[in-house]
User: What shape does this take?
Amino acid sequence: MKPSADARTLGTFLKARRAALDPRDCGLPTTPDRRVTGLRREEVALLAAISVDYYTRLEQGRVRASAAVLDTLSRALRLDEDQQSYLYEVAGRTDSRPRHRARRPAQQVRPAMLRLLTQLTETPALVLGRRLDVLAWNRSAVALYTDFAAVPADRRNYLRLMFTDPAIRALHREWAHDARDAVAAVRMEAGADPDDPELARLVGDLTLRDADFSTWWAEHRVNSATYGTKHYRHPLVGDLTLDCDTWSGADDSGQRLMVLTAEPGSPSHDALRILTAWTAEHAADPEPTGTGTRTL
Assistant: This one.
């Protein structure tokens, strides 16, 4: 059957939008010999969690997209509100056009969380926001994990770093266990806010980058645990076994304080003290971070 005029228009629009995207902005790996401008069909299909065959037929005007597919394509192709309206119009789904959700303000650390973080000077601590975004940290956390201030703000996410930062990956002696728990924690959050566009981008990026993430995300395992034990192998002080506890804020900001401590008198406690002392000796003065907080 010959595609209708609207179907051809939809296909042309989809091709134009994917050609206009920079793969690096979508978290996609690139190589110097890449000849394709923009995104490939396969990459759009992965970001939208649909089959390549279905997406190909959609571009060719041989299938009518559901409202759910249009919604995922809007996120995958990073369409603005006008482009989304046009997409639904040419797809013949104006009756199903989603209401645009209000843009969320940038996450800012709650003052109470920041006060708690300020008082924790001898143990690693982080303030985590929605999707496990890293909002604030102290110097001990920098010594244990990485210099978070050097990580671009849009990449400063605990889950993303677990899968994409080789040093943080190597730090975890039980990486698969810890990474799978982090996936389950974000999956739990996705159930409460499945339409979060930033979450969709995070999941799409990691799905393309890491086969383990793709497998574990598809398991739909959830985890709301607030305590546990983590095992590290630090390049400066060796093995560390630390208790990990998190406390959530009383409001609906989704912010939580994560603190790592060692049993007093244990080898890990001594190693943590050495690491903290080394950090205090070599650290520069605190600098403002990209979210308006400080490294403390």
Summary: The chain is about 45% helix and 10% strand. The radius of gyration is 22 Å. The CA atoms of residues 247 and 257 lie 5 Å apart. The chain has two domains: 5-96, 111-282.
